């Protein structure tokens, strides 16, 4: 037999675990930007802690960091910064991308109440430079400047920010569309032809 529930009675109270999960969820929802910025600072800082640890003889700890970041970055020595003669666990481009997202998060703290969301098709368009930058590296060594990967990685996020800012301001004339299209085309040309 099924037991009928009396709608006039109070519903059962959540258990201690459910209550704790609910509190943590609300806490994260209230402070999500702080949590993400702290994670990004840690994510960017650890690759540069690895060569310092290696220099001072903490090789196991450094090796753990190198192996963890090997999943996210190719770690080619000629495309990475070096500290005390040891390679960082992130290359120039990965450093620029993650650092610019972190800096964007810090800027977002100041501007988030003034910004409106972008339509979905603008996010798709914004992925063009990311695809070009990531895809062209698969074609082999294109050029060997000191920091070309840092510059293009940083430029991706700057381009995304400028595109979003112009869209928010209501800029809809031919210069806007020229900017939106020329940056990914120009970056693709630089990567494909090896122009320095």
**Lateral arrangement of strands in the main beta sheet:** 1-2
Task: Please provide the count of β strands.
Answer: 2
| Structural domain tally | 2
What is the overall silhouette? flat
Largest sheet, strands/sense/barrel: 2 strands, antiparallel
Q: Helical stretch count?
A: 7
Mean pLDDT: 76
Cα Rg: 23 Å
Helix content: 55-70%
Q: Which H/E pattern describes the elements? A: HHHEEHHHH
Strand content: 5-15%
**First-last Cα distance:** 79 Å
Low-confidence stretches: none
Secondary-structure-based class equals mainly alpha
Summarize the structure.
The protein has about 200 residues and is mainly alpha-helical.
Describe the structure.
This protein has about 200 residues and is mainly alpha-helical. The chain folds into two domains: about 20-115, no CATH class; about 115-195, no CATH class. The chain has seven helices and two strands. It has helices at about 15-30, 30-55, 60-70, 90-110, 120-135, 150-170, 175-195, and strands at about 80-85, 85-90. Helix 5 (about 120-135) runs parallel beside helix 7 (about 175-195). The mean pLDDT is about 75.
Question: Key terms for this structure?
Answer:
196 residues, mainly alpha, two-stranded antiparallel ribbon
Topology (elements, then pairings):
Blueprint: H1 16-30, H2 32-55, H3 59-70, E1 80-83, E2 86-91, H4 92-111, H5 120-136, H6 148-168, H7 174-193
Antiparallel strand pairs: 1-2
Helix pairs in contact: 2-3, 2-4, 4-6, 5-6, 5-7, 6-7
